[in-house]
Give the backbone structure.
Amino acid sequence: MPRDVASSEPGGDGAPWWVRAFGAWYPVVYAHRDDAEATRNAPGIARLLALPPGARVLDVGCGAGRYARALAALGLRVTGVDLSEALLAQARRRSPGLPGAPTYVRADMRDLPFGPQFDGAVSLFTSFGYFERPEDDARVVASVARALVPGGRFLLDVLNAEAVLAAPDADGEDLRPPWRVTFRRRLDPTTPGGPYVRKRIVVSDLRTGRDVFDVEERVRVHDRASIDRLLVAAGLEPVGEPCGDLLGAPASAQAPRFVRVARRRAGR
């Protein structure tokens, strides 16, 4: 059993999916999202944010801190925020010894406990669109905007709606002994508040054949116009053209990611 399962957030099957999914099993399910990937992408993120070394950055939905560590290694002063105590515990264990080691804070992204103090903020790998009510997405963006100094930039990285809406449903399996991770991904265009991408994830113990973790993720899909409306309503001004990845490649219908950068307007 992964370390920290015993300290995962309470709630069981009655908890929201985003409480259950982002706990101690997350590193097993998403083992491919590793420190090496973060190290490759971090310079591109810093360029898109136009931040020099020493700038203060807020990592919203930081999880176990892989991007917080990679950005800190570039000389940025990073504060990571997440709701998962289990993932924050992992982040703290893995971060000591770095120059300007990241700081980690437990908080709900809809109500961040910060005034205007950050030069930049990031929300990476679709750490957005989780909540039941669409208006909560607006609360997240407004909360991030309040934490930025005038001129500070916010990088929002989500699924590319064009690619997602055109993709067929998919099933898959990964063997990560002693675990088997299976998933079934489907598009849900009819549930109010959507469209959504739903992904059911099951972790099985290869030694016993028993399922040890079962959750369905549900993420709201935002297109470009929707994202820009949310940003503008929060007092953020979109900067340049969107990108198709964190290294700055142009956005396209086929790109798996949609990366948008916006700047906090003066006077907000």
Observations:
- The chain has two domains: 12-159+223-264, 163-219.
